[in-house]
Amino acid sequence: MLFASTSTKNPDYPDTIYIEQLIGPDTVNTMPEETIEQYHDHGQPEPRLEHHLAQARTLIDRLARAGVDYHDITETLDREGVEKFASAFEELLDALEHKARALTAA
Questions:
Q1: Which of 43, 16, 20, 21 is nearest to 32 (CA)?
Q2: Contact by Cβ (8 Å): 19, 44
Q3: Mean pLDDT of the chain
Q4: How would you classify residue 9: left for phi > 0, otherwise alpha for psi between -120 and 50, otherwise beta?
Q5: Are residue 67 and residue 23 in the same domain, yes or no?
Q6: Mean per-residue pLDDT for 58-81?
Q7: Widest CA span of the chain, in angstroms?
Q8: How many domains does the chain have?
Q9: Is residue 93's pLDDT more than 90?
Q10: Do 90 and 66 have their domain in common?
Q11: According to the model, what pLDDT value does residue 81 have?
Q12: φ, ψ for residue 28 (rounded to 5)?
């Protein structure tokens, strides 16, 4: 599982909240350099992703009863996330190609 750009946006939350809560087996977490430095400074490493699974399952069941389609939401987030990463990658390749052309033209 990939967690991307997991910096804390809300200043009322601890600056490592998403890093610490998303540690688990077979996971990758990309984060801004500032968040890496904060976690390195005062993070509490411990696999927490699988904590409170019974509560999570209960919440998902309640959401389903309220009409929230968990699978549709996760598929949408997955698709949109891949699209955004692909778009950013294409922009990077375009910028590199532009720079390479400028260097060869000089």
A1: 16
A2: no
A3: 92
A4: alpha
A5: no
A6: 95
A7: 64
A8: 2
A9: yes
A10: yes
A11: 86
A12: -130, 140
Looking at the predicted structure, is the pLDDT value of residue 5 above 80?
A: no
Query: Which domain does 79 fall in, by range?
Result: 52-106
Distant-in-sequence, close-in-space partners of 38: CB < 8 Å, separation ≥ 6: 15, 16
**Stretch (H or E) spanning 12:** none
To which H or E segment does residue 3 belong? strand 2-3
List the structure tokens of 60. 């998902």
- Write out the two tokens for 14: 């601890």
Nearest in space to 50 (alpha carbons), one of 81, 80, 27:
27
Q: Find out whether 5 and 13 touch, Cβ atoms under 8 Å.
A: no
Whether 39 and 66 have beta carbons less than 8 Å apart is answered as no
CA angle 79, 88, 35 (to 5 degrees): 90
Q: Which amino acid is at 97?
A: E
